[in-house]
């Protein structure tokens, strides 16, 4: 019996110590949020949150230890109730509770839920018991269908987000691997270029000069510039500019 009492006292001391540490950490984080919000950054807030999470994990390990007694099996009973001010109680509770009267005991030492909550729970249990097996199976199937549809939508949205993130991370290609060699060959060696000849350049001879009518008087007029021209076989004055027109069928050297 004494051994169990010692284990219980040790567990209670460890639990009280962990709870006090947890209370201090939560108070410090609340103080920073309320008073140091201008200089508080996200990494510091995450550090405080990680500290609180670690303290909760440590408290859970103590309560779930095999050597720790099951505290839920113990009952807390008030030894004395009085409506007067209790300084020791106020000091222990840090001013949160100053009296231990009949009005406070049902709230702090309640082992059953409140009457309103208990009534609501009873109504829900009665409603659940009135549902038949077939109706329950239909409701479960409908719920599974809705959950599956939502799951598919979430997966599709995640795939789209991942694909968009992957496309944004890579640099956009601004050139074509197939067109670049063709363009370089066309510029440097003329590969793929075709030489086109105007239709008027196929006919040789200078443009026709002014013609004299049958009743015209005076010397014949030559081409502009005072250069006398010779009459061709068709009565046209040949031009003094010599042209060298190649045949249209000749291949272009760059073709």
Give keywords:
255 residues, mainly alpha, 7 helices, Methane Monooxygenase Hydroxylase, Chain G, domain 1, single chain
What does this entry look like structurally?
- By secondary structure, this protein is mostly helical.
- Among the domains are: 74 residues, Methane Monooxygenase Hydroxylase, Chain G, domain 1, CATH 1.20.58; 36 residues, no CATH class; 43 residues.
- The chain is built from 7 helices and no strands.
- α1 runs antiparallel to α2.
- The longest helix is centred in the middle third of the chain and has 37 residues.
- It is elongated, with a radius of gyration of 52 Å.
- Component of the Mediator complex.
* Largest sheet composition: none
The CATH class of the domain at 1-74 turns out to be: Mainly Alpha
Q: Tell me the Rg in angstroms.
A: 52 Å
Average of pLDDT: 77
- Element order, helices and strands? HHHHHHH
Strand content: under 5%
CATH topology grouping of the domain at 1-74: Methane Monooxygenase Hydroxylase, Chain G, domain 1
The outline comes out as elongated
- Runs with pLDDT <50, length 5+? 213-217, 223-234
How many DSSP helices?
7
Structural class: mainly alpha
In CATH terms, what is the architecture of the domain at 1-74? Up-down Bundle
Helix amount: 40-55%
Strand segment tally: 0
The CA-CA distance between the termini, in Å, is 110 Å
GO cellular component, one term: mediator complex
Keywords: Activator, Nucleus, Transcription, Transcription regulation
Subunit structure: Component of the Mediator complex.
Family: Belongs to the Mediator complex subunit 8 family.
